[in-house]
Amino acid sequence: MRTADLSHRKDTRFDVAPLPETIEALIRDLDLSALRKMRLSGAVEPVGARNFRLRARLGATVVQPCVVTLAPVTTRIEADVERMYVDGLEAPEGDEVEMPEDESLEPLGPEIDLLAILAEALALNLPAYPRAEGVEAGEMVFAEPGVAPMRDADVKPFAALKALRDKLGDGES
């Protein structure tokens, strides 16, 4: 959307569904197995004399491999997306920048890239560790030969106290 074409009196509505080549690029870039029913719908509304607010709803169905079994896991994503485009806001520069309190602020440029917003919102809302139905992560145990391996239960706050209590209990019998 060209910002010069946006109305300063009324909302500009949009409904974006990416083309197949864009979907293929997202599948590749986000390590997905499949991506379907993807859409970004909403409006860009004027705020004051020169700023704009984008409010939209992302809908997508993604298929990712299970982190335990690699079986396909299908997830429906429905997420609200909001950006505030501010005229004159400087884009941060440098290797390290401090995040602003309002992370929805964006500098107002010559255009608003709806496909970039769609891709970012999808990436932020993907399940980080998708699991197939009924699958537990399990416990992996490693140790050098001859050394007792450390288990998850061993690092819990009261595991040492329980072991001491059990040891003292055994000595009193």
UniProtKB/TrEMBL annotation:
Q: Which cellular components does GO assign to this protein?
A: ribosome
Identify the keywords attached in UniProt to this record, alphabetized. Ribonucleoprotein, Ribosomal protein
Identify the domain of life: Bacteria
State the protein's name. 50S ribosomal protein L34
